[in-house]
Design goal:
By secondary structure, this protein is an alpha/beta fold. It contains 14 helices and 19 strands. It folds into 2 domains: about 240 residues, 3-Layer(aba) Sandwich (Aspartate Aminotransferase, domain 2), CATH 3.40.640.10; about 140 residues, Aspartate Aminotransferase, domain 1 (Alpha-Beta Complex). Strand 10, helix 8 and strand 11 form a beta-alpha-beta unit. The model has no long low-confidence stretch (mean pLDDT about 95).
């Protein structure tokens, strides 16, 4: 393949991916799309620039304009998340976690967290950031019925283990964590409390989930591209008055984990923060309403939707079970759904042990469907597409064609200062 063929092949694949998502129902819970103004900031000259340090304290010249951008963003993040400290430089949620761990604990320290089998993020595990920092991991007892840490057993574990850090938050995240009681136990033994809000950060900022920084968390990390609808990136936040902690957190980002921290993405975050200040409460409310409606719709169609007795969800996610533990039924369901024009991901549920071949469940998210204008009525249509795909087992091409026609009515990005095409350039 010569250079021109290579470049053309890549561009063709980029365009094909855009058409795939444009014509499908994108329901991966960790994904979202950019508004036109955020996309404009991301696709700018800032892409190739550096600004090591903090506003007014740079290692390079030529940063005055970026100082303006980052300074505005820091103050906006403090307002949006109602906190005293914000670092908006992190390039991802996982980088935010690595940085926070660097600031809060040292190698050999003990950390408590949710296991990956129970929905914890891979960065909370030995295979991820926790292992990278050389930490001793102990996982919480899990209440499968409530899909949260078993509060009494976890408090007992914390008091007996005496960790240096208690980490909360998940990748599979249906309900707010009972954080106040767990934080009290952690602080009682001298531990810091960290909350990974990557998935639910927009719901937190929109007042629709919980308020970790005022329920006991010393530090909150998060992604800027999930329920918070900005570009790829992350946040590190705290409401502590401890300026020593603030300095540690800043230093853990630069120079701790980032040299260039992708200035174009930072600029996109700042625009997204402005749009969130204008529309974030509405967007967060509509996400939760849609997720609840989807859970109810899927249950009515005959699916095994987890946590029915709790109303299915209080977040942007819904979980469905499609077979017994390690049956791989979730993997097969995810592939069948993609054939029918529905993009989601297989997911381990409690009892599963094989991450690639065994997951019995699906994790379904509604942030992107909400962003393009779908509401609770459309969630019933989505549930029927699921039933046609997985229960009635209709011809995949027929379902896919109907999905494409349905999705054609939802091609504009909303909850932003300047509405425009959700899938531009196609």
């Amino acid at each position: 393949m010569n250079p021109h063929e290579q470049a053309n092949t890549v561009q063709n694949a980029v365009d094909a991916s855009g058409r795939h998502y444009r014509d499908s129902l994108p329901m991966i819970a960790s994904e979202n799309i950019l508004s036109p103004l955020v996309a404009k900031a991301v696709n700018s000259d800032l892409h190739g620039r550096y600004a090591e340090g903090l506003p007014g304290k740079r290692y390079y010249q030529g940063c005055d304009d970026f100082d303006t951008i980052e300074s505005i963003g820091i103050e906006s993040a403090k307002r949006v998340f109602n906190c005293r400290f914000a670092n908006i430089q992190s390039t991802s949620g996982t980088v935010s976690n690595i940085a926070a761990l660097k600031a809060l604990v040292k190698p050999g320290d003990t950390i408590t967290a949710v296991s990956t089998a129970d929905g914890g993020h891979i960065s909370h595990a030995r295979m991820g950031a926790v292992g990278l920092r050389g930490l001793d991991l102990v996982t919480y007892p899990w209440d499968e019925d409530r899909m949260e840490p078993d509060v009494d057993a976890s408090c007992k574990l914390i008091r007996e283990t005496k960790p240096q850090l208690a980490l909360f938050g998940q990748s599979v995240f249906l309900f707010p964590t009972p954080l106040q009681e767990l934080s009290d136990a952690a602080h009682e033994v001298g531990a810091k409390v960290m909350y990974d809000g990557a998935h639910v950060l927009g719901l937190i900022a929109g007042g629709q989930f919980q308020d970790p920084l005022h329920e006991g968390a010393d530090v909150m990390t998060g992604s800027s591209h999930k329920t918070f609808p900005g570009p790829q990136g992350g946040f590190v936040l705290s409401d502590s008055e401890d300026e020593v902690l603030h300095k540690k957190l800043n230093n853990s980002i630069f120079p701790g984990t980032c040299s260039s921290y992708h200035l174009h993405h930072v600029a996109g975050k700042v625009v997204a923060l402005a749009e969130f200040e204008a529309y974030g409460v509405d967007y967060a409310r509509d996400i939760v309403e849609n997720a609840k409606a989807l859970g109810a719709g899927l249950a009515a169609e005959g699916f095994d939707v987890l946590a029915e007795e709790r109303g299915f969800t209080e977040s942007h996610q819904v979980l469905t079970r499609h077979g017994g533990p390690d049956s791989g039924a979730g993997m097969r369901a995810a592939q069948r759904l993609e054939d029918c024009g529905i993009i989601d991901n297989m997911n381990m549920l409690p009892g599963d042990t094989k991450a690639m071949s065994g997951p019995s469940g699906l994790r379904l998210g509604v942030p992107e469907l909400t962003r393009v204008g779908m509401g609770v009525d459309e969630m019933q249509d989505v549930a029927r597409f699921f039933a046609r795909s997985l229960i009635s087992k209709e011809d995949a091409a027929s379902v896919c064609a109907d999905v494409k026609e349905f999705k054609s009515r939802f091609q504009t990005v909303h909850y932003c200062l300047e509405e425009g095409p959700a899938y531009p350039g196609l």
